[in-house]
Write a structure and sequence with these properties.
This protein is about 45% helix and about 15% strand. By secondary structure, it is an alpha/beta fold. The strands form two sheets. Strands 2-1-3-4-5-6 form a six-stranded parallel sheet, with helices on both faces.
Length: about 350
C-alpha cells in the first residue's frame, strides 16, 4: 500500500511525550505525520491540509484549543462554524477524520456548551474514533450519542518507560528532596487543577495519625492561579509532614520525584483517561486512584489501592491500606511496571495504523 499521510490537529503546546512517541512510531510504519503551523491548526487548517500536505487522514486529538481561548461568544460561534465547515469539506473530498477522545470535556470546564457541540459534531463527522479503554468507549457512545458503534476502536495509552531518565536511587532521590528515608512517601505529581482533588488529598492526609508518613505535592498551579496557590499554602501550613514543591517540573526531574516516593496518588474527582497513571506505572510505582474511566482497566488490585469515586472515605481507606502494606509497595510497583511494558509504542502505533487503514 502507498504511503499514508496523516495530519494531527489542533496543535497542543505541552511537553507530553504522547504525541511525539505516537508520531515517531507511526513513521516507522511508513505513515507520514505532520502538524500544520500552530495558528492555522486552530482555525484555518483547510488550505494547509488539502493543498500543502495532501493528507489522507486528519487525526484530531484534544479539541479544546479550538474553543478555549476566547470568552467572546460571537467570536467563538464564528470559529465553531468555520472549523465545522472545514471538517465537512474534508469529509466531502474523501479525507478521513479520526478522533482520539482523551476526555469527555475540557478539564477547566470553560465554554462547556461549545465543548459539547464540538464533541457531538466531531463524533458524528468522524470516520473512526479511538478511545484508550473499553470503559471510555462506552462513555463516548453514551455522552456523544454515537449510533455507529463499530467506528469506535480501543487503542491503549502508550507507556513512558523510555521517555524519561530513570537511574537515580531511592536514597539519593530522597536526600535531594530532604525527605526522611524511613518514611512512607506519598506523591502527587503534575499540574494542580481543581478536578484533580489536591485540596481533598491534603484534608485526607491531615487525618492520618502516623508520623512515619510524608506527602510530596510537586507541580505547577494551573495558569499560576494566585487564589489556588494561597489556599494550598494555607492548607499545608499546619502539617509538617507535607512538602509542597510548586512550579513546573522539567522532564529530567520526573525521575527524582517518582523514585523518591512509595505510592503515587491520583485523587481525581473526574477522569476518563489518565496518562499520569501510566507514567507512575512506567516508573514501577504503586498507585492510589479512583476506579473510574480507564483507571480501573489499566490498574488492578495487585498494583493499586482502588476506591469508588463517590465514596467519601475511599481515599482515606486507600491511604491507610498503603500504610498497612508498606512492605508490599515495592512489589506492587514492579507488578505495575510489568503491566506498563505491554503498552509499548510500536504496538500502539500498529493498532493506530490499523484504524487508519480500516477507515481508508
Amino acid at each position: 500500500m502507498e504511503h499514508i499521510k496523516s495530519i494531527f490537529l489542533p496543535q497542543v503546546t505541552d511537553d507530553n511525550p504522547y504525541t511525539k512517541q505516537l508520531i515517531d512510531n507511526l513513521e516507522k510504519l511508513d505513515i507520514k505525520v505532520e502538524f500544520p503551523s500552530l495558528q492555522s491548526s486552530r482555525t484555518f487548517f483547510l488550505p494547509e491540509v488539502v493543498l500543502h500536505a495532501k493528507a489522507d487522514i486528519v487525526h484530531l486529538h484534544w479539541l479544546h484549543p479550538f474553543f478555549i481561548h476566547s470568552t467572546n461568544i460571537v467570536f467563538n460561534l464564528l470559529k465553531l462554524l468555520i472549523v465545522i465547515f472545514e471538517l465537512v469539506v474534508l469529509k466531502m473530498i474523501g479525507i478521513k477524520i479520526i478522533w482520539t477522545v482523551h476526555n469527555l470535556k475540557n478539564h477547566e470546564n470553560i465554554n462547556l456548551t461549545l465543548d459539547r457541540i464540538y464533541n457531538i459534531v466531531v463524533a458524528k463527522l468522524s470516520n473512526g474514533i479511538i478511545t484508550h479503554c473499553q470503559a471510555a468507549k462506552e462513555e463516548v457512545i453514551k455522552e456523544f450519542s454515537v449510533k455507529k458503534k463499530d467506528k469506535i476502536f480501543v487503542v491503549p495509552h502508550g507507556n513512558y518507560i523510555e521517555c524519561y531518565e530513570n537511574k537515580i536511587e531511592k536514597v539519593t532521590a530522597r536526600e535531594s528532596l530532604g525527605l526522611k528515608d524511613s518514611n512512607l512517601v506519598f506523591l502527587f505529581l503534575g499540574t494542580i487543577r481543581p478536578y484533580k482533588g489536591v485540596f481533598e488529598l491534603i484534608d485526607t492526609f491531615n487525618q492520618l495519625s502516623s508520623d512515619k508518613v510524608q506527602l510530596v505535592i510537586a507541580g505547577r498551579v494551573h495558569n499560576d492561579n494566585q487564589e489556588m496557590t494561597d489556599t494550598l499554602k494555607q492548607k499545608i501550613a499546619n502539617d509538617q509532614r507535607i512538602k509542597l514543591i510548586p512550579g513546573f517540573i522539567p522532564a529530567d526531574k520526573i525521575q527524582l520525584y517518582m523514585n523518591a516516593c512509595d505510592v503515587v496518588i491520583f485523587p481525581y474527582r473526574d477522569i476518563l483517561t489518565s496518562g499520569a497513571v501510566v507514567l507512575a506505572m512506567s516508573f514501577g510505582r504503586a498507585c492510589i486512584a479512583p476506579r473510574k474511566g480507564c483507571i480501573g482497566e489499566v490498574l488492578d488490585d495487585t498494583g493499586a489501592f482502588l476506591y469508588q469515586i463517590d465514596d467519601e472515605n475511599g481515599l482515606k481507606k486507600a491511604m491507610n491500606s498503603a500504610l498497612e502494606k508498606h512492605s508490599e509497595l515495592f512489589f506492587m510497583g514492579q507488578h505495575n511496571l510489568q503491566l506498563a511494558q505491554q503498552y509499548n509504542w510500536e504496538h500502539i502505533a500498529k493498532m493506530t495504523a490499523d484504524v487508519y487503514r480500516y477507515c481508508l
